[in-house]
Every structure is written in C-alpha cells, then in structure tokens.
Structure prediction request, 186 residues.
Amino acid sequence: MTELYPYIKSLHLIFVITWFAGLFYIVRLFVYQIEADAKPSPDREILGEQYKLMASRLWYIITWPSAVLASFFAFWMIFFTEIGAFWLTQSWMHVKLAFVFLLYLYHAKCQQIFSQLQRGEIRYSTNYMRLWNEGATLILFSIVFLVIVRSAINWIYGVVGLIAFSVMLMIGFKIYKRIREQNQQR
Prediction:
C-alpha cells in the first residue's frame, strides 16, 4: 500500500483542485443567474436558461464528482495507509478535518442555492453571492496553510492572520461594490 501512496495523494489533490474550481465558479454562475433575472424579457429567459444549463453541467459533471473523488482518495489515504493513521494523531489534522467539515457544509449550502435557482427561486442578492463566494476562499487558505505548515503553525498568529485576510476580503468586496455601482450610474 505504501507504494500506491504518492498516486493516491496525487489523485486526491487533483480532485480537491477541481472541486474548489467548481465551487468558485458555481457561485459566480449564481451571481449571473440572479443578475439575468433582473433583465427585461426576452434577455431574462434566454440568459436564465443558459445559466441554468451551465450551472447544471458544472455542478453535476465537475463539482459533485470531484467532491466525491477527493473524499474517496482522502479516506483511502487516512484509513488505509500507515501514514494516514499517524496523521490522525496530529492536532493539525484535527483542525484540518474541522475545516473539511466546513467545506462539506459550504458545498451542501451551494447545493441548496443551486436547487432554488434551478426552480427559478431567487432568495439572495448578487452582493450576498459575491460575499458567499469568499467562504470557499477562506476554507481553501485555511486548509492549504494547515497542510503545508502543519505542527509548526502558531495558532494565535494563524487565527489573527485568517481574521486579517477576512477583513482584507471584505474591504476588497466593498471597494469592488462601490466601483460597480459607479460604473452602473454612468
């Protein structure tokens, strides 16, 4: 099993990347769907149907299979390799798994939003969706830093850094929103 480990880890990483790519882009498509709903007819119907089709293909052909395969290879690494058993004793892995749990919750909420939009139900604003998209970014940064830095991480600096990064994202979001509103007024 040890000789398979690099292959399993590579496949896990590939599917984690495609999973995140799907999560990043699906929320972008949510923004486009919500914006299309505000357009006059026939643009609303044409764009709405096209975005629903694009979202459906992305969600069911890329994002969901990537989530399942990333999880499959992660479980394989953790439960069926010697190093995986060792990692489960490490505190950084416990924290990482907590962030992975948050990622599953984020994915589930995206599924809920996806289903609502496929039914034509608009429950969120484009600003909410743009902000929601940053959730995946925070989870990604947290997981990558935990995996790379591992036990050398200083938890206090890590938490402060994550909060600072979140504040920077919020400031960037507000600046982008202001610029977008100014461009719409022209």
User: Anything to note?
Assistant: The helical segments are 5-37, 43-80, 82-87, 91-118, 126-149, 155-185. The first helix runs from residue 5 to 37. The chain is about 85% helix and 0% strand. The mean pLDDT is 90.
